[in-house]
Amino acid sequence: MLVAVAVLITFQTALAADLSPGPENDAEAACTEIKTSLHALAASEHNESLALALSGGGNSTAIVEARLSVLLDRTQDLRAMLARMRQSAIARDPAAQECIQMGFHALVISEKLSSDVETVLYGDDDSVAQAPAIRPGAPAASPSVPPQP
User: Fold this and answer.
1) What range does the domain containing 52 cover?
2) Looking at the domain assignment, is residue 68 inside a domain?
3) Mean pLDDT within 92-121
4) Is the N or the C terminus of the chain less surrounded, counting Cβ atoms within 10 Å?
């Protein structure tokens, strides 16, 4: 019985070693992981865009808020993955560096999109530029002017 367990553990360890990427595949695996995360982020951005278009007809903004929540989750997933990869040994590989850089570029754009959607949904009195109104015919938010002493 003990021999069978030892053989099973040895077999599982060998199988895991065969499935783990070698040094030549590390950059490719990292790029694949980043691209998968970017596809998920792009899908959530697309869904947010559709929700914004639907709410433009005077409908509830609840769907926009729900899609924004998913978008923020995907953005956080990408941010965490890129931070993990940047701190790993794979970050020294030029191919992986290129993919990581692409991921950070997409992260900046997504954060800007999220910020813009939040401004449209919730307004931002400290903002210099005012967001357009969600509903057609609704007045745009006016900037708040602090009282002059």
Assistant:
1) 25-120
2) yes
3) 92
4) C
Spatial separation of the C-alpha atoms in residues 62 and 35, rounded to whole Å: 29
Residue 84 burial (CB count, 10 A)? 13
State the total domains in the chain.
1
Q: Would you say residue 58 lies in a domain?
A: yes
3-state secondary structure the chain: CHHHHHHHHHHHHHHHHHHCCCHHHHHHHHHHHHHHHHHHHHHHHHHHHHHHHHHCCCCCCHHHHHHHHHHHHHHHHHHHHHHHHHHCHHHHCHHHHHHHHHHHHHHHHHHHHHHHHHHHHHCCCCCCCCCCCCCCCCCCCCCCCCCCC
pLDDT in tens, 20-78: 444 445 889 999 999 999 999 999 999 999 988 888 766 678 889 999 999 999 999 99
pLDDT of residue 131 exceeding 50: no
What's the pLDDT at 58? 63
In a domain, 14, yes or no: no
